[in-house]
Design a protein that fits this description.
heterodimer; A: 373 residues; mainly alpha; Hydantoin permease; two-stranded parallel sheet; disordered C terminus; B: 485 residues; 3 domains; 5-stranded antiparallel sheet; 14 helices
């Protein structure tokens, strides 16, 4: 059950935009003020580089899965540890998406919503997609990808007339330090390329169009940047009070007086995108669980992920300040390690391993070649 | 084994329980007794007399070879004379309209095709009506149907494999495909599945569907059905395999992808620009048919704040005095619509118009006037009901989905509807029909096949066979070698 290169590119696109258009812009503003977009741009670009790096490794590896590849490059012990750490990272992303989705749905669609009414349909959908595997997730992403893109573009374009360019000035008036600090604090919203680690051996690279991933990644970065630009341009200092960037920029909310007839359609599309993202990172989590505990069957890992989403939704309902988890040092370090350190170690390990495997050519250095002209 | 003509005749009569339509005639031919047997109502009497009785009784030349050879080569005036080694073989063919010739003391029985084909004339099928284009439709006779295909295809590449299915009916089932175009593994897979079928009788092509489709319990159709030879040949040219069943005017096609239902044979006989527009309309129609009542219920119950104020005021005014909740109101209308549809379908044709008037005008008007339902609800259900039949072959599935959407809209609101829609997409994405993805060429997206997806390119530009259908990839070019053109 392999996915093709175009589907891989679309998954990259979807994961790049997944967490960026809800609470993130408002949260970033607290520290990095009107230069928040720079933080997003830099970190998304880093994610893009890492996505290319992992895909390159994917192409080079002949193994059926990441665990075998890691074992070949790094030996038998480290991969299991890495997998265990990746489970935590994926769990964090799943939690972030599911809570974000819940708040978004409740805020935009209902006056109040019982958590179980929210979580049960979601679990059925995600459970089904997880059961059907990555190809199913990829195909659904393919179906909704352009609708999401044009929907977000429409929302942003519709509100563009209201932005104030002066909101972005003066640039860098507090220097780069707040931006670095802000980037570090909000790291758990980035590291989108980590899911790619679990797709080793699941991508068919025949008929690959080389620039497809680059094209989709740039499209995602451009879209997120544009939405953020409109958001900061509209709200400026009030940005931190807006938790749902994509719906707030269109002035859409059931609680607000100004209603746009088409915006709710676009906001609806965003819900579907989040649900698919949940399935994608849920899939990555399942793979990591299987590799860590050497489980062959999919059933128990799927059940575990679904129970996790269910419990998380309940816990989230009972606790206050979930953002503290996502904004902690732990989340930031975890993301840096899983998204940026592990792939780098893997790449270095691969290069070293390949160097060892190459037979040395004796006497080749001083050999003179006569060329008859 | 040598056959005794009289004893064999008795044996056959006994085996057929002395059936009253079993007829026989005994004649003498060069001092040999010959028994001619046939089933009366399925045998063409004129043909029987011309090919059997007259040649045998009028033959007056000297006998040069043994009787069987003489009969085969010189006497019997038929295009095909079959030899049988056993009574059972001969009986099987006799039951499908052949006449058998039992010569006393000979080791073989002869069979001649004297079948009387009783079928209706070739007509335009009611579900595939076209404005422009061929109007011929398949009939219930496999022979006529194969002839209709052969008429369009004059190539040795066309393969027709006929087999008998059904322990009692022994229905003729033909597998048709282009040898150089169809995927051989798909063909062998289909033939293997057909040969494995153990069933008393096959009365229609639809009997075979559950044996052929992978997800036999799924509500979505995974096997195509066509009623017109031009459509079948068009599909076969793309690499599909057809299954013709004697007694059915429906020909099954495999592999099947969902977009086929959004396409119509008319599309290929009209301007491409118009086709693209119409196909998008059809897709929109399908979406409206399934989700519109559910979304309407969800908006009325949970999300009335996102309905534009002026529209909301109109809806609220029309709902004044309605005793039912929006869900009960819409659900009642949907069920009413289904009842009317079922009644209309089975009602004699001359009642149809009266039924439409009673159903649509009187019943709809009076329920609104009586204050049982609101006009917007009637409008929504009517719109959804009409758009169903944009894709008539999937209307039954859509009606069930519409009911599910109503319940989900009422229980979970817009969020539930969204999850429902993604679930349906995910479910459809999980199908593969004979190595072809169900939602192809959209998911997975196949660039080359966009020439005939939601838009249609000019016929002259469609140079390659679709990649989304499993076919012989080595022969992907529709016109062979381009240099020859």
């Amino acid at each position: 059950m392999k996915i093709n290169y175009r589907q891989l590119s679309i998954l990259v696109f979807m994961s790049f935009i997944a967490l960026k258009c809800l609470a993130l812009p408002g949260l970033l503003y607290v520290e990095s003020k009107n230069m928040s977009m720079v933080v997003t741009l830099v970190l998304m670009f880093v994610d893009f580089i890492y996505a290319l790096l992992i895909i390159d490794l994917m192409k080079k590896s002949n193994e059926k899965n990441i665990l075998d590849f890691m074992t070949r490059c790094l030996g038998p012990v480290l991969p299991r540890i890495f997998m265990a750490v990746l489970i935590v990272k994926y769990a964090l992303v799943v939690a972030n998406i599911s809570k974000g989705l819940e708040f978004f749905v409740v805020e935009n669609f209902y006056n109040s919503l019982n958590w179980i009414v929210f979580v049960l349909p979601l679990i059925i959908l995600v459970g089904f997609m997880l059961y059907k595997g990555i190809r199913n997730i990829a195909r659904v992403s393919e179906l909704i990808c352009w609708a999401i893109f044009f929907g977000c573009l429409y929302i942003a374009l519709k509100s563009i007339a209201g932005i104030d360019v002066l909101n972005f000035l003066p640039a860098f008036h507090e220097g780069a330090l707040p931006l670095i600090k802000s980037g570090y604090t909000h790291m758990s919203w980035f590291g989108s390329s980590t899911f790619l680690l679990m797709l080793f051996g699941k991508v068919d690279f025949t008929n690959e169009k080389k620039l497809q991933v680059v094209k989709y990644s740039f499209l995602a970065i451009a879209l997120v940047m544009f939405v953020h630009l409109v958001f900061y341009g509209l709200f400026d200092v009030t940005s931190p009070t807006h938790n749902f960037c994509i719906s707030d920029i269109s002035q859409y909310s059931s609680g607000q007086s100004s209603i746009d007839e088409l915006s709710w359609l676009v906001v609806s599309l965003w819900v579907t995108a989040q649900a698919v993202q949940l399935a994608l990172f849920g899939y990555a989590m399942i793979q990591a669980i299987k590799f860590t505990f050497n489980i062959k069957s999919n059933v128990f890992p799927i059940l575990f992920v679904l129970i996790y989403i269910f419990v998380w939704s309940f816990v989230g309902e009972q606790t206050v300040g979930l953002e503290r988890i996502f904004l902690s040092h732990f989340s930031s370090i975890l993301t840096i390690f899983t998204a940026y350190v592990i792939p780098l170690i893997l790449y270095v390990g691969y290069v070293v391993e390949r160097g060892k495997g190459k037979p040395k050519k004796k006497g080749a250095k001083n050999e003179k070649v006569k060329v008859n002209i | 084994m040598k056959f005794n003509a009289v004893e064999t005749k008795k044996d056959i009569e006994q085996k057929l329980h002395n059936s009253s339509d079993l007829k026989s005639r005994t004649v003498q031919f060069f001092e040999k007794t010959i028994v001619l047997m046939y089933i009366a109502d399925i045998t063409d009497n004129v043909l029987f007399n011309q090919t059997l009785i007259a040649p045998i009784t009028n033959y007056n030349k000297p006998l040069e070879k043994d009787v069987i050879t003489e009969l085969k080569e010189k006497v019997l005036a038929s295009h095909e004379v079959i030899e049988y080694e056993t009574i059972e073989e001969a009986m099987d063919d006799m039951l499908s309209g052949k006449s058998i010739v039992i010569v006393d003391g000979e080791e073989k029985i002869l069979g001649l095709d004297t079948e009387k084909i009783t079928t209706r004339p070739v007509m335009e099928p009611p579900t595939s009506v076209v404005v422009k284009g061929p109007r011929e439709g398949f009939t219930e006779s496999i022979k006529y149907n194969i002839a209709l295909i052969r008429k369009r295809v004059r190539t040795p590449d066309l393969v027709v494999n006929i087999m008998d299915i059904g322990e009692l009916t022994k229905t003729q089932v033909g597998v048709v495909y282009f040898d150089s175009v169809a995927d051989k593994t798909v063909v062998s897979d289909i033939e293997k599945k057909l040969k494995k079928i153990k069933i008393d009788g096959v009365l229609d092509a639809h009997y075979l569907i559950s044996y052929l489709q992978r997800n036999s319990k799924s509500m979505f159709k995974q096997i195509g059905d066509v009623e017109k030879p031009d459509v079948l040949v068009g599909k076969m040219l793309e690499g599909r395999v057809g299954i013709i069943v004697d007694g059915s005017p429906i020909v099954l096609t495999m592999p099947f992808v969902l977009v086929e239902d959004l396409q119509n044979s008319d599309d290929y006989y009209s301007q491409p620009i118009r086709v693209g527009f119409v196909r998008v309309l059809r897709l929109l129609g399908v979406i409206l048919a399934v989700v519109l009542p559910g979304v309407f219920i969800a908006l009325e119950i949970y999300h009335y704040k996102i309905i534009p104020t002026e529209f909301l005021v109109t809806i609220m005014n029309t709902r004044q005095g309605i005793p039912f909740s929006p869900f009960v109101e819409v659900f009642f209308l949907v069920v009413l619509f289904e009842i009317l549809y079922e009644a209309n379908l089975r009602m004699p044709q001359y009642f149809g118009m009266a039924m439409s008037i009673v159903g649509a005008l009187i019943l709809g008007e009076t329920t609104v006037n009586a204050g049982l339902v609101s006009p917007p609800a009637v409008m929504i259900v009517a719109l959804s009901g009409i758009t169903f039949y944009i894709v008539p072959s999937q209307a039954a599935q859509f009606s069930l989905l519409r009911l599910a959407a109503c319940v989900i809209g009422a229980c979970l609101g817009l969020y539930g509807m969204l999850i429902f829609c993604v679930f349906i997409l995910s479910y459809l994405s999980s199908f593969d029909s004979y190595k072809s993805a169900y939602l192809a060429p959209t998911a997975p997206y196949i660039d080359r096949d966009q020439q005939d997806n939601f838009k249609r390119d000019l016929i002259k530009n469609m140079k390659k066979r679709p990649k989304s259908i499993a076919n012989n990839s080595k022969n992907a070019d529709r016109r062979g070698d381009e240099n020859q053109l």
